[in-house]
Amino acid sequence: MFFKKRYFKFARSSNNKLYLFNVFFNFNNFYFEFLGFFGFYKIYFKYFYFFKKNNFINIFNLKKLFFLKKLTGFVYSCIFNIIKGLTFNYEKILIFRGLGYKVILRSFYLYFYLSYSHPRIYKIPADIFVKILNNNNEISIKSNNKQRLGEICLVFKRLKKIDVYKGKGIFYKNEKITLKIFKKK
Q1: Band of the pLDDT at 183, cuts 50, 70, 90?
Q2: Hey, is 117 helix, strand or coil?
């Protein structure tokens, strides 16, 4: 059964409320399940137990180990990112700068033309949504999982190393690089 309350308070940030807009969740012992507009997400926390009383959720670590006390903050941020991702999709925009740099989307495959003799082909995972913008020089990547989105964008950025002398490469939309000066004789 999914809880249908509009907000919950977490133990660590009891003054702040975590609002749930169109996101329902359920937890059994070590599993946390979320159902939102952008999909279903299930996560397993091995050493943590969740307890609910009214609108208050508390997380207990079963083993009183030092490193698990540090992980409780990670668990809170992980849950917050999941809820935010199921409410509003995370999005990153990659820009391709350089002569002959372009991307073509064909069904479930991305073809990267990065001034090599052949295109680099990448299959798009099921949880990632890609849209081509501006004459095949920009792509918009969306996902409800923040970590997965960052990993996919990093894979795309590593396809071609950034040239810091000419300003060529694959960049995030708001990323700024400082160009190096050529050596003078």
Answers
A1: confident
A2: coil
- Give the Å distances, CA to CA, from 47 to 33, 70, 80, 140, 173: 17, 12, 19, 37, 39
For 147, the 3-state DSSP assignment is helix
Q: What strand order describes the sheet that includes 129-133?
A: 129-133, 138-143, 90-97, 169-172
Query: Considering the entire predicted model, what is its pTM?
Result: 0.78
3-state secondary structure of 155: helix
Annotate 26-57 with b (16+ C-beta within 10 A) or e (fewer).
ebeeeebebebebeebeeebeebebeeeeeeb
Q: Which residues pair with 41 in a beta bridge?
A: 34
- 72: tokens are 């409780």
